[in-house]
Amino acid sequence: MIFSEALASETFPPAALVQTSPSLRVRGAALKAIALGLAALCCSATPQAQAQEGGQVPYATIHKVVSRAGQVKHPKVRAIVTLQSKTGAAKQKPITMVIQAKSGPINVAVSEDGEIRNFPISAELLKENPMVQSNQPKGSSQLRVDLEAVLPDGLSYSYRELSQLLDDASAEMKKQAGMLSMMMPRPKALSFEFGGGGKQTVTIKRAEPQVLNADANGAVLLEIDKKLAAEDPQVVVSARPSKVLVR
Q1: Prediction pTM value
Q2: Of 89-93, 128-132, 226-230, which gets the smallest average pLDDT?
Q3: Burial 140-177 (b: 16+ CB within 10 A, else e)
Q4: Taking the alpha carbons of 162, 163, 169, 171 in that order, is the dihedral positive or negative?
Q5: Burial of residue 92, with CB atoms counted within 10 A of its CB: 0-12 exposed, 13-18 middle, 19 or more buried
Q6: How far apart are CA 154 and CA 104, in angstroms?
Q7: Where are the domains of the chain?
């Protein structure tokens, strides 16, 4: 996770997006306001956002996150924005998100795991700044920005190319962070997200194969070792992961 912006804690009627709050959940102080050039997001919510009742979030709040994430332009690394529960699984499924524009409701595609797919970046909507609603209970959600590494085709990869993917992601983070890149810890792992929980594996093919099992959430964390990258064994996955996140 690059950063997450926590959302307010009160419960609220369904069909409203949680209200932003000043609190932030950031993995380590050094990640505040750095990766992806998202410094403007790592601060208190605007007075406008704080003043809203009913658990609704202004379009501008999400626009800021999605447009900054869109600044990542790399063939093998992309930034994804996810609406996630702070306590585990989403409270309501499927997750829905609707922009209440004057011209009529605009449905935003949200994947099963909460990835916001087609949030419209529009100067007209930004000027109007309509409210955005979701079916998640107020206080249960947060916006996350992650970097996703784009795997080559197939189920087998060289360890070296996975190491290079991590290097590419690190370079992109530093590029987006600018002057703040000196404060930024280097990512060390790739998380293979299979979903489904616990059945998939990632195997490093050596004289004695190292088999990594998925956790309860269906994820396998592969910590990249530069010495092992020089050896360059094959890494085989039992199934194609839905995504690979930089950690």
Answers
A1: 0.77
A2: 89-93
A3: bbbbbbbbbbebeeeeebebbebbebbebbbebbbebb
A4: negative
A5: middle
A6: 43
A7: 3-147, 154-246
